[in-house]
Predict the structure.
Amino acid sequence: MEPFFFVFTSKWYFWILGSLVCLFLGGAVPAQQNQNLAGTALLLDVRGVIGPATSDYIQRTMAKSNTEGAALIILRMDTPGGLDTAMREIIQDVLASPVPVVGYVAPSGARAASAGTYIMYASHIAAMAPATNLGAATPVHLPMGSQPPGEATPPGEGEEAGTPPKDTLARKAINDAVAYIKGLAVQRGRNERWAEKAVREAASLSAQEALEMEVIDLIAQDIPTLLKRLDGRNVKVVGGEITLQTTDMTIIPVEPNWRDRLLAMIAHPNIAYILMLVGIYGLIFEMANPGFILPGVVGTISLLLALYAFQVLPISSAGLALMLLGITFMAAEVFVPSFGALGIGGGIAFVMGSVILLDVEAPGYQISWSLIVAAAVSSAGFLYMVLLLAARSQQRPVVSGREQMLGAVGKVTAVARDKMTVRIHGELWSAQAREPTTLGQRVRVTELEGLTLTVKPELEEDLHD
């Protein structure tokens, strides 16, 4: 046991693996005990693309506000939109929250586009800072070849009227989004007509226009101004109506914890894509070279992180299957000679799978084309290098076995009547010659029978070694 324990603990990568496991297990333990948040407002910053990390961050904070008695939740937003699944999870939490939620587009110059507009409509109170905007809520994940939202077939003209299937799918997606945002508008008493226009025509509004059209409730330059204008407002939440008392309310910023930051990092499509490639190639290298350990450890960790990211991302199973098939074919080319057929087919499958891997077109959630090309070229280059080395190895002279002895040059070390001893490659061999030879003469092997060599004298002009 002692040697095994010493080897195990002396490897630094085992310590890294153990630390990661403890880090993940530690996430299940609360970082701090519950505290009384009565009379306070929790401030959450929703910046950048809305994804799984954002919904987890908001859901965790809302659960905290419910258990610890916060009086208000402020979502300070500056977002271009994001994933539909993450947006709907956030809206469900907002609609079910017994604590009033304020959607606040700030600071000046910020926006709440696409998914951010839906969240603003779902919030109990919608506010904007000057010089901000919201809108452009048209679903971007539409079938290829469909008509733009403004040119869609008018409602009432269905498939029977000759509407192409792709246009029908586009109309279904748009109509679903319209019904969803109009339902939020009715519940919060906001402008339904403009909500529909934001979806069908990708319309946008400035803060002043949004206030005039009753899309938002107020304009506030900053958080203190926002609290002053919220004071005394009646808000309907789950469980009844609340009168806000925001004068002298304490603001507590809530930062994303390590789990949210880790999820936000690995859930980025490019990062998840790289982690998957590192994981797969690490395991392939470990299986091809057993005992290295480090590639296997790094590959396993990377692959697990990639699978976790794919769990929360809208992954196309066909794209993932094509990628795995392509990598398998390219790896098989190394072991199964197919004159490049497996390698070329694997490269094509790999690129096609990478292109359709993510079943989403939300901003910030596409795999970079440059990354796909770089990965494909690197894989093809590696495959070409392996095939080139294999081809060169076939052309090299044999360095062991019977074939290696034929043509080898040695020196006569002893001569008897019909036998002699020669030294070849540092070894002494019994030999016979059909021509006269002398002690110390250089000879070349012409035949090998058992352990006896047949040699002939090597003339000076014929020496090659």
Observations:
- The CA atoms of residues 351 and 373 lie 8 Å apart.
